[in-house]
Amino acid sequence: MQQSSLHSARGLSPAVRNAVEALLGRTLKDDEAVSVRAYQPHEAPAAEHQRSAVRGLRQYFTNIDQKLKDVPEDELDEIVDEAIRSVRPGYRPAP
Fold first, then answer.
1. Coarse DSSP helix, strand, coil percentages of the chain, rounded to the nearest 5 percent
2. Distances in Å between the alpha carbon of 50 and those of 23, 55, 61, 80?
3. d(CA 25, CA 4)
4. What is the phi-psi region of residue 15: left when phi exceeds 0, alpha when psi lies from -120 to 50, beta otherwise?
5. Spatial CB neighbours of 34, under 8 Å, sequence gap ≥ 6
6. Residue 95: inside a domain, yes or no?
7. Radius of gyration over alpha carbons of the chain, in Å?
8. CA 69 to each of CA 57, 74, 75, 76, 86: distance values in angstroms, whole numbers, following the listed order
9. What is the pTM of this model?
């Protein structure tokens, strides 16, 4: 059974296009694509499981912070900027 579909906005019937635009709260451009996905939502994890995940993340980031404690801040900023530029070539950091 198909779980998702991708459609060109140009190819949508007027009724479907109107429905999608109503859901998005804006007008679609003809060169845009619309992706539709159907899935079964699930219950949120139990509170203890959430707390455990938070503890694990805090420990993970504490370990990262320890590894980076001797790296100068301007070097860290440059590393982050480089990573962002690798996925967004026009990115310019704020002055």
1. 55, 10, 35
2. 31, 9, 17, 29
3. 21
4. alpha
5. 6, 7, 8, 9, 12, 20, 28
6. no
7. 22
8. 18, 13, 12, 10, 25
9. 0.47
- The residue behind tokens 């455990």 is 52
How many structural domains is the chain composed of?
Answer: 2
**Residue 35's Cα: distance from chain center in Å?**
15
d(CA 39, CA 71): 44
Range of the domain at 70: 47-87
Tens digit of pLDDT for each residue in 20-56? 999 999 999 999 999 999 988 999 999 999 999 999 9
